[in-house]
Design a protein that fits this description.
With 301 residues, this protein is of the alpha/beta class. Among the domains are: 86 residues, Arc Repressor Mutant, subunit A; 106 residues, D-Maltodextrin-Binding Protein, domain 2. The chain has nine helices and 13 strands. Helix 1 crosses helix 2, helix 1 packs across helix 3 and helix 2 crosses helix 3. The protein starts with a helix and ends with a helix.
């Protein structure tokens, strides 16, 4: 039984190397095997599972849907094995690299100020932080944890809520001096409404007027790829921007930005979650350490 389990973990490791290195030959070099031996191993694995894991062509390998599922589970199992071995020698101390995907806004305003605490608590953990507002495929991007804003679609992702934030329209004082402050929805037609270059749950600015919610289209001359870029444009006096309240709180207190049309706010809240791949099973201690820290110190206030 022990030999069987060892063989299975060995097969998983070779399969994961094939996927991550993009072929039999590089995986064979990494595993000190021949390409033909790797090819036969994958064929035996597929025969045992009664499922094709890889579509082969002369130029590339592509995961099948069954291959994607097996790759996801295999990487988790191998990570758990490595984590168990490290824990045995380190007293359950979190050790290893964690890849985190988050928006620049969340990183700058929430995470960065408390990050030294995490690094001090977990000296064995190395963080690889990628900042983007685009929704990424955690599996394809080799991401352990992602912080996402907005409603979550049904998927294999497990989520831990980090709080919610209001949205507000704001502008720099010098912009309002030049173009005037809008008082009604109709006034927005005369203003540069800054937009974002990625899909959102609501394509526009929802405002409440005369008991009805009206979604105002964003038709400005400039778009930004993330919320923090949008904030910088607003601070520079380029136009009006609709931003998460936690990102502009200090700017409004300091007078760098001014809330606009607050009396027409539709009361929409945007949820934030830390998500990871899995179905609630055991997690590597390095990933669990980051998730626990985000749930405690990375919450939106």
């Amino acid at each position: 039984m022990g030999s069987l389990q060892q063989n299975r973990s060995g097969e998983m490791e070779v399969f994961v190397r094939v996927v991550e290195l993009g072929g039999f030959s590089p995986a064979a070099r990494a595993a000190n095997m021949t390409p033909s031996a790797v090819s036969k191993l994958i064929a035996r694995l597929e025969a045992r599972l009664s499922a094709r894991l890889l579509n082969r062509s002369t130029r590339q390998l592509q995961l099948t849907p069954e291959g994607c599922t097996f790759y996801e589970r295999a990487t988790r199992i191998l990570a758990d094995i490595a984590d168990a071995e490290r824990a045995a020698g380190s007293g359950e101390q979190a050790v290893g690299r964690v890849r985190l995907n988050t928006s620049a806004s969340y990183f700058n305003h929430i995470l960065a100020p408390v990050l030294p605490e995490f690094l001090a608590l977990h000296s064995g953990v190395t963080l690889d932080i990628v900042q983007t507002d685009a929704v990424v495929d955690l599996l394809a991007e080799r991401t352990d944890v992602a912080v996402r804003a907005g409603p979550l679609k049904s998927s294999s992702l497990v989520a831990r809520k980090l709080g919610e934030t209001a949205q507000m329209i704001a502008a720099a004082p010098n912009y309002l001096e030049r173009y005037g402050e809008p008082r009604t929805i109709a006034d927005l037609e005369q203003h540069n409404r800054l937009g974002v270059g990625y899909a959102r749950a609501v394509d526009g600015w929802p405002l409440r007027d005369k008991g009805k919610t009206i979604v105002v289209p964003v038709t400005g001359r400039v778009q930004a790829s993330d919320g923090e870029g949008l904030r910088r444009l607003a601070l520079s006096g380029v136009g009006l921007a609709r931003l998460a309240a936690f990102t502009v709180r200090d700017d409004i207190i300091a007078g760098r930005l001014v809330p606009v049309l607050a009396h027409l706010d539709a009361g929409e809240k945007e949820l934030f979650h830390a998500v990871y791949v899995g179905q609630g099973g055991p997690l590597p201690s390095r990933v669990r350490a980051l998730l626990d820290f985000l749930a405690e110190r990375g919450r939106l206030q």
